[in-house]
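Dear all,

This email documents one entry for the complex benchmark we are building for the journal club exercise. For each entry we list the sequence lines for every component of the assembly. Then comes the predicted three-dimensional structure of the complex as a C-alpha cell string, followed by one or two observations. Please use this as the template for your own entries, and keep the labels exactly as they appear.
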Amino acid sequence: MKTEILNAVESKCLRKNMPHFEIGDIVDVHCKIKEGDKERIQIFTGTVIARRGKGISETFTVRRVVDEEGVERVFPIHSPNIVDVKPVRSGKTRRAKLYFLRERTGKSIKLAHRHSEHTVAS
Amino acid sequence: MVMLLGKKIGITQIYDEAGRLLPATVIHAGPCAVIQVKTVKTDGYNAVQLGYDDVKPSRRKKPQIEHAKKANSVPKRFVKEMRLPNDTEPQYKLGDSITVSVFAESKIVDVIGTSKGKGFQGVMKRHHFGGMPGSHGTERKHRSPGSIASHGTDRGHGGNIKKGKKMGGHMGHVRITVKNHSLISVDQEKNLLVIKGSVPGPDGGYVIIQSAKK
C-alpha cells in the first residue's frame, strides 16, 4: 500500500519515452545547460559503465577519457534536463558494472565492438 | 485556519517545472469527520472535533461508539480539535466530512507530528554538546557532558544543579511542528497531499496539517 502510493506519486515525473541503451554502449547524452537566462544543449559522449537505482532515483554513469584524464558523470535517467540518450556503438561486456575500466589507460579502455540492433538503427 | 488529520505515507522525490529534484513527503489526509461541534453557548468556545482513520466499533468502548454515532460515524483512531474564531458561528455541522480540497488554494502549510523515538541518548546526540577531547590524557569520558555545576553556581543555594540543565535522557517521541513547508500538489481523488521536505514521525505516523500561521 505504502509503496503503491509512493510509486503512483513518482510516476507522474517518470520519463515516458525511455531511451534504450545498454551497459558498455558508447552514448551521446544530450543535456540542457543553463547559462544565465540562455539555454542550450550540451552533448556528453562516453561509455555507460553503470546503471543503478530504480524509480525516480535511477541513474546511469557515463565515463570518458579526456586528455588522459578520466571523467565520469552520473545522470538521473528521469531528469527533464536529460533531453535524449543516443547509443552510438555497442561494446562487448560480461558484467553489469564496468568499474574495471577506471584502472585502464590507453588503448585498453576501448571495449570490443559488438553488433547490436539498437545501435545499428540510429 | 483550516486543519486536517492524516497519516504520513512516506518520502520520495519529484521534479519541478525547472527540472530540480525536490524531496517530497506524501501524506494521506482526510476525509475527516466532524464528530462534535463546540460553541460558545455550550462549551465557552468555538471548535470542532475531527476524527480520522476508522476503527471497528467492537474495538472501542460504548461511550466512544455512541459519541461517534451522534455524527453518524464510526469511532476514529485519531481525534483532534480544531479551534474556530469565537465571534462567528461555526460553519461546520455535525457529520460533515472535511477533505483535502480545503488546501486546494494553499501554497504553504504547517505539519505537526510526533518525532521518532530515539531512546536514552547522551548529551552529544541529544543537545549537540562537543564532548571531551579524543586524546591529551582524556580517559573514559570522550562523550561525557563535563562539569554540570560547581560549588558556587545557582548563587544562594550553593552547589545545586540548575533546573533545566541539559543532560542525557530520553530523546525523540515529542510533538514537533514544521512550519511553512510548501505544498507541491493536492490529489483530491486519492486524498493525498504532497509536501516539499520532511515531516516528523515514522511512515504511517499520524500528522496534523494546518494552513501556515505566517
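Observations: Strands of chain A lie at 26-35, 38-52, 59-66, 69-76, 82-91, 113-114. The radius of gyration of chain A is 16 Å.
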